[in-house]
Design a protein that fits this description.
The structure holds two protein chains of two kinds. By secondary structure, chain A is mainly beta. Helix content of chain A is about 0%, strand content about 50%. The termini of chain A are far apart. The mean pLDDT of chain A is about 90. By secondary structure, chain B is mainly β. Helix content of chain B is about 0%, strand content about 45%. A five-stranded mixed β-sheet of chain B has the order 1-9-8-3-4, with no helix packed on it. Chain B has a four-stranded antiparallel β-sheet with strand order 2-7-6-5, with no helix packed on it. In chain B, a hairpin with a 6-residue loop joins strand 3 and strand 4. Classes of the chains: A mainly beta, B mainly beta. The interface between A and B is medium-sized, with 30 and 24 residues.
Chain lengths: ~120, ~110
């Protein structure tokens, strides 16, 4: 199957700083990418949907000024957590699809810890 | 979005078949039934999906009820590496942005 790579896999940052997470589709062009967040022992919660070259669509309750998403090319989307706080500590996962009726491919996730 | 209902957990023995049920009584005609699984500390992994007919692939089989209100994911011979959370998700076949909404899933434990 197709490969989606996330980087970094693990990051620790100080409270108040910003962290950027990259999501790359390695062997296909992703028309749509999704960003999820998962707290311990909970399910994945969709944060936003992004299409290449256009603004991301955020789910209700997700602050778009805090979680900046850029989808500048068909193989790269980035999520920047701005002014991170300990409550932003979570497992962030990206997903990509090639088209409308295809399965989604997920990155391996990024464990963010804000201290 | 139409909702799915799964048991919280299930245990199985290694090398035995596993049947993971999913109820989706409010499914609409354009909803595909998707199954993903998530191993600990990893992103989800696609398992299988279908619309009306039963489906088979190298990982599993998907049996879909005739009225489509329920489905069963079948692992033919469970291995220890199949221990994971399995999510049954309905995805509407409309638009490029049709999203996957994850429920709680079912936690499968495999006994050696």
């Amino acid at each position: 199957g197709a490969v989606v790579s996330q980087h970094p896999s693990r990051v620790i940052c100080k409270s108040g700083t910003s962290v950027k997470i990259e999501c790359r589709s390695l062997d296909f062009q992703a028309t749509t990418m999704f960003w999820y967040r998962q707290f311990p022992k909970q399910s994945l919660m969709l944060m936003a949907t992004s299409n290449e070259g256009s603004k991301a669509t955020y789910e209700q309750g997700v602050e778009k000024d805090k979680f900046l998403i850029n989808h500048a090319s068909l193989t790269l989307s980035t999520l920047t957590v701005t002014s991170a706080h300990p409550e932003d500590s979570s497992f962030y996962i990206c997903s990509a699809r090639t088209g409308r009726n295809t399965e989604a491919f997920f990155g391996q996730g990024t464990r963010l810890t804000v201290v | 979005d139409a909702k799915t209902t799964q048991p919280n957990s299930m245990e199985s023995n290694e090398e035995e078949p596993v049947h993971l049920p999913c109820n989706h009584s409010t499914i609409s005609g354009t909803d595909y039934i998707h199954w993903y699984r998530q191993l600990p500390s990893q992103g989800p992994e696609y398992v299988i999906h279908g619309l009306t007919s039963n489906v088979n692939n190298r990982m599993a089989s998907l049996a879909i009820a005739e009225d489509r209100k329920s489905s069963t994911l079948i692992l033919h011979r469970a291995t220890l590496r199949d221990a994971a959370v399995y999510y049954c998700i309905l995805r509407r076949n409309t638009g490029a942005n049709s999203k996957l909404t994850f429920g709680k899933g079912i936690t499968l434990s495999v006994r050696p």
